[in-house]
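Table S2 (text version). Query chain:
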Amino acid sequence: MNTILIIVGGVVVGLVLGFVIAKILEKQSASKILSDAKNEASSIIKSAQTEGESIKKDKILQAKEKFIELKAEHEKVILARDKKMAEAEKRTRDKESQVSNELAKSKKANQELDAKIKDYDFRLDLIEKKKDEIEKAHKSQIRQLEVISGLSAEEAKSQLIESLKQEAKADAMSYIQETLEEAKLTAQQDAKKVIINTIQRIGTEEAIDNCVSVFNIESDDVKGRIIGREGRNIRAIESATGVEIIVDDTPEAIILSCFDSVRREIARLSLHKLVTDGRIHPARIEEIVKKTTKQIEQEIIEVGKRTVIDLGIHGLHPELIKLVGRMKYRSSYGQNLLQHSREVAKLCGVMAAELGLNPKLAKRAGLLHDIGKVPDSEADMETPHAILGMQWAEKYGEKSEVCNAIGAHHDEIEMTTLLSPIVQVCDAISGARPGARRQVLDSYIQRLKDLEDVAFGFSGVNKAYAIQAGRELRVMVESEKVSDDQAANLSFEISQKIQTDMTYPGQVKVTVIRETRAVNIAK
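Corresponding structure-token output:
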């Protein structure tokens, strides 16, 4: 029992001792942990303080560097501003110095001016005194001369003036007479010199128009196709164009005869298109002739444009350009009208330059001087071509000098500018040179035109063509206005009118053609 108690007591004591020892050991461990934590916290605090000091030093260093940089930039700005201020102050000092110099010069000039004014006043006084003395001496001399000559001053002056007048008049008359004689001797020579120089500087061409064109064909087989069955094709061509078609034994050629070169050209181009196309019949012929007529009208405009561009003429009205182009298909006494007008324009330009006038205006007047020879209607043909051309030029805004030169180049109106005689002379030069014109051809063409005009004088006439060199007049009438019986009567009346009103060699055959067409379209 005691043993058990002892054992139990020993266990209890052991437990108590173990517990105490455990507590002691736990306390020591906690103290150690706390000590280690304190040491670690102290170490962390020290590390943080060290790092903070390092960051603080870096920030302070960066701030110092930024401050130094800003300070340097500020100093640069201040230096630049100081430099500008110094320069401005220098300029101001220079200006002040310059102003001071100018003021000094002005002051000196004023002093010199005052000195000169004083000197001028002094001299003026001397001059006045001398003038008085001279007047007194002059009057004394005049009195002495009056006493010696027995004449008063006014009488002597009148005699002297009269004698001087007579002498001056005689000298002037002598000078005028010499000048007139010299002008008479040199004027004609100078005029010839200007004209010769002008002609020598212009290259001329032989510009003769004929009334016949030759249409070349590849073979004689084409002639039969052109003639058509019973001659219907050739009649259709002649009716549509007003050109006489001559098909003879000439190999590979057909002759187109007409005094109007526009009609002849339309017929030639139409034949070329028909032969090339191969389809030759009356309806096709009429269609081709209409298209060719429009083509020729467009070509006339192009020719007019090229002509004015070649001559350097600007601002010409489109209608005048069209008239210039139409001159290509007209002739004057056998001389192509466009070539003649170009030649006159060049001559006028050179002659105006020789005389010191406006060469461009002279060229303009020279080109347009014969536009009245291409009238639009039969009514215009009654007006002289110079007057008609002047009226057109005025209508389309040409200058008065140009209009007067056009109207006066055949003396229908009075010449008012220097351009007018120049155009007249150059027109004569161009037309009078050897080989330029044929008088007979122009009278022949005029006779053919008069022949056609006779037919147009009757009502119901649609077209009239003089063919076979004026030996036949072919008249197309409107079927609605003229019956078959009236056509026969019209033919007789036209022939009687020609017989009584015209002079012509041989006979003139009058053929009146009346054609009725009925056209409907199947849809």
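Notes on Table S2: The radius of gyration is 59 Å. The chain has 14 helices and eight strands.
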